[in-house]
Amino acid sequence: MAGAVMGAGGLGAGTPDARAMTGGAMAGDARAMSPADMAAAGIPITAAMLAGSQPQALPRLREDLGLHPGARQPDGAPSWTLHDPASNRFFQLGWAAFEIVSRWRLGTAEAIVAAVNARTTLAITPADVKAVGDFLARHSLLATGSPEATARLVRLARARRLGHAMWLLKHYLFIRVPLLRPEPLLQRLAPAFDFACSARFAWLVAALALLGVGLVMQRWDAFTHTFAAYAGWQGLAGVGAALGFAKVLHEFGHALTARRFGCRVPAMGVAFLVMVPVLYTDTSDAWKLPARRHRLAIGAAGMAAELVLAVIATLAWSFLPDGPLRAGAFLLATTTWVATLAINASPFMRFDGYFLLSDALGMPNLHDRAFAFGRRALRWALFGWDDPPPERLPRGRERFVTGFAFATWVYRATVFLGIALLVYHLFFKLLGLLLLAVELGWFLARPVWSEVTVWRERAGELRWNRATKRTAALLALAFAALVLPWQRDVGAPARLGASEAQGLYAPAPAEVTEVLVRDGDEVKAGQSLARLRAPELDADLARARVREAALRWQVERQPFDAGLLQGGEALRKQWEAAREQVAALEQLVARLELTAPVTGRVVDVADSLRPGTVIANGERLLDVIAPGPRRGDAFVDEASLGRLSAGARVVFIADRAEAPAVHCTLGAIDRLRLPALDAPALASTFGGPIAVQRTRDALIPTEPLFRLRFESCDDATLPVSEMTGVARVRGEGRSLLGRMLKAAWTAVASEAAL
């Protein structure tokens, strides 16, 4: 990102701003002028000035300040910029503020008022001069010659001094590390960059883009599979190098463009945003440029550089050999520039997109100014406070910045919440919880509390009106939704079927050779239902038998053969392993003949169960259900388990839209955690809602689950075959807030091992 380091604040035409342009230093001799001096300077002397007492002299301006002409504001008014080189901050001044500051050497408010009113069409008062003086003092722009001024600066320094905890917090959230003073390097690169900014270079890039896309389209399949082909360490090295090069080029795009327009680039380096490294370039001098298009060019230069790099990488991919370089070129051509546009072009954070939008609108300090409008709109909507607008803007512009403020708040809340969760998972749990609390407290809770504090201070202004009635109604609804135990049902993934039922699945990739039953046939336990053939499995079994026979012969010959005798016990263990492999393969081959596990009826025969059809491993083929009452199982998490008790009402809603709801009664509740899921249809690996990890022998739930058994179902609506769906179980009513607090405390206690 191009980090424009600037101060927040300004004065001019009633608008707080933060801009800077070009110019030289100004001195601040503030000796109070006598009437003779004023007459010699052509300043009118009023009767009030002659009759009054000696005017109070104004403090001097600092001699290192710079006052520069700026760009015109959106309404056409001129602006100027005051530059504080000591803190590298910039302050935009309107016409009246500029006239006052430029005449500060007159020494008294009365002299400045008289001079401005005489020489311009403005009509200012001593109060305006005092406001400018307060602004200058607040930002330490006045010389500190008197003991009072020195004492004031000492107080400010002490107030700004951070304690150890706040210092750690501030530098944990954001810290910059300058790595390079780029001015000499930028000067050497300037001639080459001049060509990159020419029309000839633009036409060249366009031609290369067309050529690169044309070559890639001829090998589109190979291009789209590039990353999969280089997913190893070499590919990662190429990807890492490409990503780093793209980001360095991005920052040099900002720096070289700023240098081209005469700006100084004092530093380039890396910034850590919540310990996430982000490259930055100090382009503060861009605020000195009076031409808005130049500032826009600096802001867009980084993204433009990555787009040019993407064009070159697209063309290079067609000529590079297979390897890390090609993987890196693929990343540059497809991913990095898209990610850059998605992140840097966003105006909601202080990245390139923010400064581009700020320059395009001609609104420095866009976030702060938009937030002021957003707070005003929020207070009006909640309490009906008709505060004056923070500044005068056209109606359409005011609506835009207000909407922009709310969009920024939503975007930042989402981003900061994601960063907080990322930090939580990066560290060991106790530290992760602490950092999570810091993130949420600093970025989310602190701004909210700051606004709530303003509401409390203005509580005396509250009136019973339409807005407060609406707010009270919304608060009542929120209170009811959070505090009242209105939600009693517990929803859980479930299955419903026969008391004794078994689904049959393909044990391996195979071909159906014979089908002996049809849907609805009555069968007995052990009866053959279908036969499968797996040539690869047969070949594996044959090889395993040959290896087992060879090892058995070696074990039998071992006592009589000196060479085999050296194998010792290891040879016998190899033979035992081979025997186990043969036994396992024989069992798998035996399962290729599907037999009825129970006496009952065949249901839900799959369409793929036909002779000659090739089926996949684990594919469901048919079900066999035994006669008798139906029953179901549901699986709930630990938080819901305590709300349930036996005998509760259960409503099973099948996934099939045509199936009616089934009413049952909750029976046994397993209080022990489910070790493995025995309902494959509900597992995520087979498209179900329960997240599982598949091992060789079982489906292991990723989160603690507990089984509920429901029975005594309504016979009139029972399904013929096993069905999956959702069980709504009537439980103890608990408020949403109570459940959230309990879940949070459970997470904290388990993660921190309290």
TrEMBL record:
PANTHER family reported in the protein's UniProt record: BLL5650 PROTEIN, EFFLUX SYSTEM COMPONENT YKNX-RELATED
Q: Which family does it belong to?
A: Belongs to the peptidase M50B family.
Supply the InterPro entries for this chain: Peptidase_M50, UPF0194_transport
Cellular localisation: Cell envelope; Membrane
List the protein's name: HlyD family efflux transporter periplasmic adaptor subunit
- Organism, by scientific name, is Derxia gummosa DSM 723
Q: Which GO terms describe its cellular component?
A: cell envelope; membrane
The answer, when asked if Coiled coil is one of the entry's keywords, is: yes
Keywords (alphabetical) are: Coiled coil, Membrane, Transmembrane, Transmembrane helix
Domain Peptidase M50, residue spans: 242-462
Residue ranges of the TM segments: 201-220, 227-245, 265-284, 296-319, 325-345, 470-486
* Predominant cellular place of this UniProt entry's protein: other
Bilayer topology annotation: Multi-pass membrane protein
Identify the cofactor(s). Zn(2+)
A Pfam family recorded for this sequence: Peptidase_M50
Q: GO biological process annotations for this chain's record?
A: proteolysis
Q: Which domain of life is it from?
A: Bacteria
**Signal peptide from the UniProt entry:** none
